[in-house]
Amino acid sequence: MTKEKYLLKEVISSFDFVGTLISCEPYGSGHINDTFLLEYKIRHMGVVPIILQKMNTNIFKQPIELMENILNVTAFLREKIIENNGDPERETLTVILNKQGLPFYKDSHNQYWRAYHFITCATGYDEVKCDEDFYQSALAFGKFQRLLADYPAQTLHETIPDFHNTKARFKVFKEAVEKDIYGRAKDVLTEIQFILEREDVANVLTDMQLPLRVTHNDTKLNNVLIDDKTHQGICVIDLDTVMPGLAINDFGDSIRFGASTGAEDEKDLSLIQCDMHLFEVYTKGFIEGCDGKLTDEEIKALPLGAKVMTFECGMRFLTDYLQGDTYFKIRYPEHNLDRCRTQLKLVDDMEKKWDTMNEIVSKHNK
């Protein structure tokens, strides 16, 4: 038995999974946690799937606090879903406790694991293939805001401190430029100047009095499960970065990722724009999903959320490039630089379309 299989056997035996284990295979396309799909055969019930994950403690350094967040938020969501006559088994994640009643297991190598019930007959898509999928993801993330509107956000732990503190990230960026430990700054002066000229973008949200809310902080399309039969967005997943934040940041991260006309690492910047049709599709769905739970000031600030999150992401890519590519995984030496350039191109395009973006938000703010 290999070391990995021996460890998996140890971890699996720490949970009270029901039935006979018939398969255990790596699962999904995530880059942070190691995920496995377990299948158990239960007499007269057929096959029951389980998701087992080894948590990445290099990124999430407080796994116990992280799981406390997830357990509390999903319990709150279950109550709200039941109140709305929904199906909590499909509309939120269900954490499986270990034999000691804990929402995680610490193995003999001091690694942390967790388990969820697998939500069947639903799919998470890695890219926007049609308007309806993007709209459904917007509805789902908006509903996530609506259901958690009464949750005391300040009681949540910060799973990654200052994750969307753009002002703090701007300071780190300037330090990376000044130190220039890999001698790369001379080749990216245009990108550096673009960011330095927009310090106001980095600071703008700290000067606004927007409500602190429970935020997801990784609102990509593939973090919403879409029902295979109804094609409706049914469940928001990947709750590792759920913590206190601003609703407009969740909106903005979705736009940055989903309304771009090209891939995040597209080399041909002429292909990169912020698609106003997709921007409107998402705006409509997000506002509908929130269903009146956002303040008027928050809704008016949605375009700003898109710009700030895109700017922040581009700045983070360039910071990582200057620091030697220590955070984001890369496939080639200039990967982070290509990623940075697409984000800065999107910021530039948003600035050109600023009036249009605000008109679209105003149109759906009824």
TrEMBL record:
Pfam families: APH. InterPro entries: Aminoglycoside_PTrfase (IPR002575), Kinase-like_dom_sf (IPR011009), Pseudomonas-type_ThrB (IPR050249). Residues 101-258 form the Aminoglycoside phosphotransferase domain. SUPFAM superfamilies: Protein kinase-like (PK-like). Gene3D superfamilies: 3.90.1200.10. This is Mucin-desulfating sulfatase. It comes from Coprobacillus cateniformis.
